[in-house]
Each structure stands twice: as structure tokens, then as C-alpha cells.
Amino acid sequence: MVYFREYACEVSDFHGIKHIAGKGGLFRRLFWLLCFLSALGVFLWQTVLLFLFYFEDHHITKVDVSYESSLVFPAVTVCNFNKYRESALTEDDIKNVGIHLGIIDEDHNLIYPTLYTEEFQNKIASVNWTGVEEDDNYNMTDFQLRTGHQIDDMIIECTWRGEECEDEYFTHIFTHLGNCYTFNKYSSDSDLLTSPAAGPANGLKLMLDIETEEYVPSNDLDGGASDSGVMVMVHDATEPPYVKEFAMPVGPGFHTFISMRHESITALPSPYTECETDGDIEHYDHYSLQACRIECETNIVVEACGCKLIEQPGTEPNCNPNTTHECAHPQLVDAIHGVSEFGSCNCGSPCKAEVYPITMASTKLRSAFLEKIFQEKTSFDHNASYIEENVVALSVYFEALNYETIEQIPAMDTYTLLATVGGNMGLFIGAGLLTLVQLLEYFLDEILSLCGITRDNERDEVAVFCGCRKKNKTDDSSKSPGGESDNNGQPLAWTSA
Predict the structure, then answer these.
(1) Stretch 3-32: mean pLDDT, rounded?
(2) Which of 147, 243, 355, 430 could be a cystine partner for 15, CB 3.0 to 4.6 Å?
(3) Of 147, 107, 99, 138, nearest in space to 125 by CA
(4) CB distance 403 to 262 below 8 Å
(5) 169: nearest Cα among 204, 129, 201, 210
(6) Could you give the CA distance from residue 397 to residue 374 in angstroms, rounded to a whole number?
(7) At what angle do helices 455-466 and 433-450 cross, to 10 degrees?
(8) Are 386 and 35 in contact (CB under 8 A)?
(9) At what angle do helices 26-55 and 414-429 cross, to 10 degrees?
(10) DSSP letters for 381-398
(11) CA 74 to chain centre
(12) Where does 391-454 have alpha helices with state H?
């Protein structure tokens, strides 16, 4: 090591190096060597831990609360628990779909006659079934649209921020529960509704008639006939509802208050989390958990049955009654339960989502009081007993006019890693970036010295190149003719320019 002492004493910024190579006794230099190696060891240990932590892709969650003068109101989808109305079923409906729904047997007799009204029992008994033709391509879309609950019959009263709702506020959609209606669904033709203040007075209020006398005890989609009421789902206006799995039930005879918050969630993609950035979505504008589930179930049904259900997206043909209930519905139930032989729906959460956590509370309706109010102000003329069994009151509103921004950020990014390593380097061994350059220079000098290239030769060439000194005509030795010598008799090869 030709240049080590010069490097340690005059060049290096490493703490303790000059004491190791400088003047002093052996004990003093060994002591400084031990201190330097200890500090270097701690620094290397900390650096290894930092790099291990960095490559483990940890993240932290940043939560911020923003206050706004108004918030965009989410979509609210409402579905009746009952899928088909008893009074809307025609002879053709019962002939083509009745057996599949568990309404009649093969001899066209009601399977559970006591569960139906006397009027419906007489209707079935009076039909000459030999004169009713069976249609293998019976229109299931028309059947569901016609026999499902109608919005004009369901809504007794609707107010938005204290004003009567307009017809365009609601959009009809098909779901696994049949006819459903979405309030404030996104449309490119109109703006979404906004709420300028928190509380029930600045939200949506619905009075619904669930028409329990119309309930049909069908076995469609794995049951549900034992419940009465509506399913309510609060979701982002740009996302499709997935009512069967994600909605909340609301029963009759109560006023249910749904207060909600707005959360904007941004998660880190792989390798930090398993969230989905785009996903394999074909029929919707962007990825969401609901969209993924709906499309995945559609693919399973289409692969298994060669057709799709009317509520499922796509251009494939709709299943006929037989295929709907013998193939599509069983496959859908298996897909929902995750046991389908045609695949499973492993849908991850989106990396970017607008969610609306809700809190529900309810109070008993004053049925006798509402009977008088309805008789005076609406065409709804049912008695208190009917109100208690059929009327659902629902208020949906923001609990506060703010929203939370929940964002995942890397626990350590590249800049933080470099800054931490640099800080530890300065703390433990007194080094910086330029100190590493000095160290590289030292190693380069040592390597060149092994090749016979000394630093003096390099300095001579640099000096001449920069014009700091110039060569005399005679520069080989003091013995050369005309050579000059200093006071000690050494040849002068360089003079100042």
C-alpha cells in the first residue's frame, strides 16, 4: 500500500483513519483501529437492515380529512326481497316458468296452495292448461320486467333535500333480485346530485310499499322467500350494484336512518399489496369489486350454459326458462359460494376506490298516525295494520360534510433509503458521497502503482497539460549537459511557468 499513509493522514475524511496511520504509539493506533472497525461494523449492520426492510415492500397508511362546501351524493339502489308479483303472473308465465320457480307441479297444481291468496288459487284452478302453449324461447326479460315490482307502486313518497323527487332521479336495473331502482346513477347526460349540508334534511327520504300480499314463495336463486322488506346498497354512482351480496336489509314497520361517510382510498399496487389497478373488465368503465364479481359470474354461467341471465352484461343470448333455472341459476349459486367447477371469482379490491361506510339505526313507525297522513296527502289509503306490515321508511344522508383520504405510501422509498444510508454513514464513520470518491481515487492510485505508473508521473503530465510548469530542454539528470541543479545538487526538470 504505497499511498495509504498519505491518503489516511492528508486526504481521507473518514473518522479515525488519520489516527490509525499517523504518528503515535502502537496502543494508540490499535485503539483507533478498534473504534473505526466497530463503527464501520455498526454502519454495515444498519445498512443491511435498511436494505432488507426496503426490499420487503412495507407500506404505511396516511389518513387526511378534507372539508368541503358540498359533497357528491352516492347512488342508492333499492330492491324488493320479492322477485315476482303474484297478481302479475299470467297463464303463459305459469305454464313456462311456474314449474321452475316451484309454484306448480307437473300437473299444474299449486305446490303450497296455502301460501297464496284465494284469488290466485282460484285463478290456477280455473285454467285449461291444455290450451296454453309452452314456449321454449320464452322472453325472460319481458317476464321479469313485467312481473317484478314497479317503481310507481313501490314509492309512496320520495323527497330529495326536502323537495319532491323527479322521475329522472331513478334508473331501472336488473339484478339477481329482479327489478331494482337506483337513485342518482351516473349518466353522461346529466350531473350527479350533491348535498350542501349534513343531516337527514339534506339527503334522500323514501317511503316504500313492499307489497307483501304480492310475495311469491319461489325457490329462485337459493331462497329468500322467508324475508320481507328491501335490500339497500349505497355505492359510488359510477359502479354497478351487487345487491345480493353487498346490500343491507331494511324491514317494514320501521324508519331506518342510514348515515354515511365518504372515503377516498388509494392503495399501492404490487408488490406492496394485492390490489387491482385495471383488472380484466370488459363491460364497465373501470375496475371495481362489484364489476369484477358480476363479470366473473357471467363468464362462469356462459361457459357452463351457453347463455347468460338477463341481469348479466354481455352480448350472449339470454337463457330460456328451462336453462335459466336448470343450469344458469345453479351455476350462479355455486359461483357465489366459490364452488363452481368452471372457476372461481377471486376478485381483489381496487387500488383506487370511492367508498361510503354507513351506520344504520331504526325507530318504530307510528302506523295509526301515518294512516291519517297518507289518506290526506297521498292516494295511499291502507290502514295501520297494512302500514306496519308493508311500509318501509328510509333516510340516507351524510353524517358530516367532509371526506377522508386514505392513502398507502411506501414505508421507505429510494430517496429515503439513500438519505438514511447517507445519514448513518456520516454518523458512524464520518463519510459522505465525496468521501467515497476519495476512496475510489485511493484504490485507483494503488492499482496504477502496481502497473508502474506513479502519481508523480501523472502530476507531471497534468502540470504540463494545464500549463502550470514547462519542461526544460534538458530534463533527464544533473549529469546532462546544460542541466540545472538545485542547492542540493538534484536536477531541475520543472520550473514555474
Answers:
(1) 78
(2) 430
(3) 107
(4) yes
(5) 204
(6) 24
(7) 110
(8) no
(9) 170
(10) ---HHHHHHHEEEEEEEE
(11) 17
(12) 414-429, 433-450
